[in-house]
User: What shape does this take?
Amino acid sequence: MSRELTYADAIRDGFAVAMERDPRVLLMGLGVPDPKGFFGTTVGLQQQFGTERVMDMPCAENGMTGVVLGAALNGLRPVINHQRLDFALLAMDPVCTQAAKWNYMFGGATKMPVVFRMILGRGWGQGPQHSQCLHSWFAHIPGLKVVMPTTPYDAKGLLIASIEDDNPVVFIEHRWLHHIKGEVPEGHYTVPIGPARLARAGTDVTIVAFSYMVLEALEAAQRLDSLGVSAEVIDARGLRPLDREAIAASVQKTGRLVVADTGWGTAGMSAEVIAVASETSFRSLKSAPRRVCFPECPTPTGPSLAAEFYPRSGHIVAAVRETLDWAPEPSDWLMPAGIELDKPNPAFTGPF
Amino acid sequence: MIDLAPSSTSSETELSHRLLESMVRIRMIEEAIAERYSAQQMRCPVHLSIGQEAASAGVCAALRHTDQAMSGHRSHAHYLAKGGNLRAMIAELYGRETGCCKGRGGSMHLVDVDAGFVGAVPIVGSTIPIATGLAFADRLLRRDRVTVAFLGEAATEEGVFHESANFASLHQLPIVYVCENNLYSVYSPLEVRQPAHREVFEVAAGHGIRSRQIDGNDPLAVYHLMKESVAYARSGEGPVFLELKTYRWREHCGPGFDNHIGYRTEAEYQAWRERDAVASTERRLRDAGAYDEERIDRHREHVEGEIIEAFAAAQRAPFPAGSTLMNHVYSEGSHP
Assistant: This one.
């Protein structure tokens, strides 16, 4: 049975299914059992599964991330939750130097089935230190798997797959996806880690997008339709492994590529996607690929600067024009009336 | 809680001999590594434990085989005392397929899960929270097991030590933090790293953890204190922190000596040599008329045989094939 759920409810449902199925699954994180329930994604889970399996923790991201690695070595399957990716940066040693290496450096003698859940975002003054989109960092590390689901269906399916995986998985959500709705089946199912999702088929240009930028890419594709351009939108879903085959197949079909990432371009996932296209499909490219990323400055807080900072569908349309060798069109950049760039949805009133 | 009561002379004598055997074995193996290191066949950094054997011997003698331990970069003694496989350790130093990490780790990454030695890594402090997590899982799964986190005194300067100690104290976890204070972090002396008016073990006490300080070169004293500490942790009373004062004889990293480079004095080194745990344990037994020289001689012969055999096996063993480079990046069967 399928029903419509928000992304946040799909995450909560995924946790409940995984915990029901496997008593070794444990949720830990600052605020996991609090009344606001981690953006609504953990509401009621402590009541359902008890204080030993759904637990708050000391404000010690580094140490507690190490603790869950040890718990995983001794048979648990923990999920450590960080309300901001920025907070998880305090735990780079346990994530990148420990979890990512143990299976390899001990010749397969140890395994660490852990999920590092991190949330990034944009808008409403999250600013320089509460919304950093550094997902690409984790994708750089062999030994980690990294996923960024966009739809409620994928959020639940990839969350369960991540929990059931015997390897450390970095599971990244965009705050602006939590309210979106979609069909989500009841009960247990998984979405495999790795394959990309074809979000929209098209023939003239490939737009590979990450996380929230998939929504902007789909809006851009609609606008491009009215210009007579058929855009294919690929939701990357997986960062490591990255679905090289899906990128190559699409670029070989369309001959044009735009990458839309919710983060900085330099040495990031957008560069990686273009590298994949160059390595696999160079002769198919009819024009130079383009990227839509953050400007190379920290994220500003105030709304006037944030409006300049965050890329949106118009930036993607403009980038597609470039790949078609079309003249720039200033109206691409106009903000549609009634849109507030710093709010994830009209119902949102802050404070976070 | 101490099964070999100090009042029982015969059991105390037996215990002293066992601890002596454990220390002698570690020292002979470490010296064998030092002797052969210059051949450049062990192509990894080595941090030898010579001078600090009493800590490993005393601590591990108080553990059950099923108890667990983790360590840092100077882990040979901990691995051996906990029962880690010698052949697999030497093969690992030689980078061979038969090594405990299949040639992927080297001296700084020892592991023998069957012996309860769950891993050592050379990032100072990094195994402290992981060991704390082992104990946390054991508590949740109601297992009757104690974990030992071996650390150096410099690791108490790392944030993760305090984060782990706070969590272990909060949940009364069955873990013993064994801190070997050898006075130096590489070449940086304790006095430039920690305040002179505060002892190392006192920082753990600040987290509400039962903390003790002891001569780390007295294996019997270490054993008895550890026995009591393990019983305390096992019974659910909470974690324990032990500061064992000791001294590394050889250079920080490598087979030689480094007193001449000027970070510590020859006089300090000689004073600690006088406190050699192997010699003092022998002397104590002799003075009591209880030393079984023939037993220790036989033990030395046996260990010499083990060493020759382990090094020969390591040098005979194949290197991992280049085609296996990508093996074990991910746990088998789950990587798409």
Q: What stands out?
A: The radius of gyration of chain B is 20 Å.
